[in-house]
Amino acid sequence: MIFEREHEIGLVAKAITRALSSSEGSVFYFEGPGGIGKTSLLQEIAKLALANGMRVLKGCAAELERDYALGLVVQILESDIDNLDADTLKERFRGSSRLLLPLFSHLPTAGRLSSTTAESPYSQSEMFLAIYGFIAGLANKTPLLILVDDLHWADISSIQFFSFILRRLSSLRAVFIFAARPGNEWGADLNRVDFLRGSNLAPISLGPLSLSSVSMMLLDQLGQKPQTTFSQECLRVSAGNPFYLTELIRESKSRGISPTEKSVPGLSQLTPPRIVEMISSKLHKLPKESVKLVESLAILGDGAPLYWITQLSELQDIEITDACEKLQKIGIISEARDHRFAHPLIQSAVYESISPTRRDVLHNRAANIALMDRAKAQVVLAHYLRTSLVPKKALTELMMIAAQEALASGAIESAISYLTRAKAENSDEDSVEEISLQLGRALALSRVASAREHLLPVTNSNNPDRRIRAALALWSSNSFDGNFQEGVDVLHEVLFNSPDGDQSLVNRLQLELARGIRSWRPTAQEGKEMIDSLRDSGNQFTPELERVKQGLISYDLLLANRPVTEVVAHIKKALPISDQVLHETESQLLHMPFYTLIYCDELELAHKVLDDFSRSKSSQESLMGSTISNLWRMFAYFRSGDLFRAERLGASVFAASFDHGWLFGMAASQLWLAEIAIERADLETASTLYLALENQATPDSEFSNKGWANHILFGLAQYKAYQGNYRQSLDEILEIGRRHDEFLAFCPSELPWRADAAICAKELGMIQLSGKLIDEELVLSEHFGAPRGLGKSMLVHGQIHQSQESLQRAVAILETSCSKLEFARACIWYGIYLNSHSQGSKARDFLFEGYRLAEQLGSNLLTELARGKLEESGFTFSKERVNNTVSLSSAELRVANLAIRGLSNPEIGSKLYIGRRTVETHLYNIYKKLGIGSRFELPDALRAASGID
Predict the structure, then answer these.
(1) Nearest in space to 399 (alpha carbons), one of 383, 432, 421
(2) Residue 645's pLDDT is what?
(3) Sequence-separated (6 or more) residues with CB below 8 Å from residue 804
(4) Is the CB of residue 126 less than 8 Å from the CB of residue 621?
(5) 302 φ, ψ to 5°?
(6) What 8-state DSSP symbol labels residue 209?
(7) How far apart are CA 205 and CA 240, in angstroms?
(8) pLDDT at 883 exceeding the cut of 50
(9) Which of 410, 846, 915 is nearest to 626 (CA)?
(10) Is 36 helix (H, G, I), strand (E, B) or coil?
(11) Burial class (CB in 10 A: 0-12, 13-18, 19+), 523
(12) CA distance linking residue 484 with residue 492, whole number of Å
């Protein structure tokens, strides 16, 4: 029976209704001291959810399991996995969900699917995305209620995962309920404030019981109505805490105390501070078998395997059964068949009642039992760390293994914790060096600046392979964070001093160094020469590194403006992207095939490669895997003119890059979002984004020497032209061109600076300079041969020289290119030219085609330009004519017709065998094309638009 929680249950009931009727998720955070009734409230909520057809997943953190990475998350999910047959499990663990198999290797069926723990590290972000996808898959089938009790005892990585998933609740059919003690009872290594802020949660405090509820509990449990003074004294003694009150009533009943005024003085003997003593006194009255069992349960924690309980307690099965019955009768455990404490406070009380010496012995034995049963090192270590009986050397070795386990499951913070302690407790020089390497690597993966302190000394190791691995990890951290110079210097030095290193590692070092110095303006020539040397040398590379080398060569050929067919031929040799490249460290060598494919207009192949990469092991092991693929997918969409998809991806890419501290990801996504804002004619947003970029790419900053800095500076200069400041824009673009030439980058498909400079020069009346610049760019574009770049150069050439032939060619080239937006732009400018040369009828056809495409693609800039020119030519925008521009695809028509019948998004997905997110994407595009804001406007809009039933 639960008292005075109607308000909280009502709030959750509404959230359950929302989750059942839509895709809207909710979260609640209940907070209160131990015994206030959090667990009972969660049990009541679980009954409510089950009655409404939800699936309920539960987890309860335990103080003794706080060192077990993702332990609470595993506990929540394992109840859903444990009883599944092998076929269902294979279905559940498809795709990225296979990442999770090592987490459930302790379960019989899942353990057979995952025979070994992965040796390569899974990044925290990839592991979190895999768990999120797994939960989302469950929620798509049946809405979920996820109950998390005693969050204050959770492991750090589980806390971080909850913060991660709660930021993505908007499209998850799940209700999360967290219960925890107040902040002062959280562990020192858990930050309640950060969790609440990151999850946008406001605590709902659970208050004490009122006098009326205390009286009702007394009546319910004692079987007779209490006198008011007795109820008042119970309220005072228990402070309205349901657990304390229950214990108080149970003790009163066992002593035969009646609920009358005469018994009030005796209640002071049973005050809450004596609850631990009460538990201890109960244990003293039990047979030794029951005491041994309850001590073993307190040491092992709830949910321990029966075999471990048997071994630690040294009891036979029949003795355990008998002991459980006795413990259940006095309220120590919840059920006779369940080896779980009735309340966490009882477990704590039992644990505290065990003498320190005996706790040492029991934890040592528990660790040995877990070790013999081949449990994860983290589980064994959780016990060894609570005893002083294990030798330091064995403890250090175990911490190293536990760190590898934590890295494999994406729990980088746990790995760092283990390695930090291992290093502090080790005095062997060689061991300390290896630990420093692993610790620095883990810190680098976490984007922690102190990685350098651990890695830099190891680059001077006597072990050449260890030297190289440390240099690669340091370079990975530095190159992602923008600190190039030190990273390059270390790569140079280690390469020179490690001729006897593992050849594969040496080759990897060469590739990283070549990429680094080729991407740095002062050393671009040296980098190009090194790439040429690697291309022409007879060095034997492994197949994986050979593909990486070909990707690097294709990047250099792109910059050198070699014909696109030659560049693409080398890119294809770089595919598929190796699963082995990132075995130890992140690498921006991953970018090369994506970068070159997109600039070569091979967008279809680029999307296929990105799809393969996002499913590959290298992506899943990479801290930035999904962010890298999303970044380049965003750019591919942008280059094709799909502004809607590019914009949606851009915001998530920037957020993820910001979380990881990835400067390039932040800068690139901001730049493309700014360019999209320009196309949208949203100059306010563009101005905000460009201002943020300007603060990063000042000409005197270290970042400005990166080749990519020229793209940012170019975007800033273009924005000044949009504002009408052609003089400053021209000066800056010419300077960018000079710097880009120093960088040995001449491909206009990659940076069309001459075309934009030519437009500015024309606006300033500098006709000779304007013509010279665009003529040069056209020659370069024709030599490279990529349709989008050639079409754009031809378009500007036609504008500058007022050449109908060039404008016609631009339209023809771009019509068959990958970029429909550039085709729309060419149509509009060709229409403007025709209109100015008294060819109004023909001009209107091209202007209207450009207008129609620009509107579909979401370019307000082009739409407004074309509309204005059409109206100048006498074209009338009737309602019917506008409606005729609406062109829904067959897939969009099917979704629209089901939506107006009242089907929900999941129901539409089920009917059409597509995912919920695909349905949402179709609806978004439908609303945009029809110019409406919701499905309520859809029936009228469909009836008004021609060609739609």
Answers:
(1) 421
(2) 85
(3) 798, 833, 837
(4) yes
(5) -60, 145
(6) P
(7) 14
(8) no
(9) 410
(10) coil
(11) middle
(12) 12
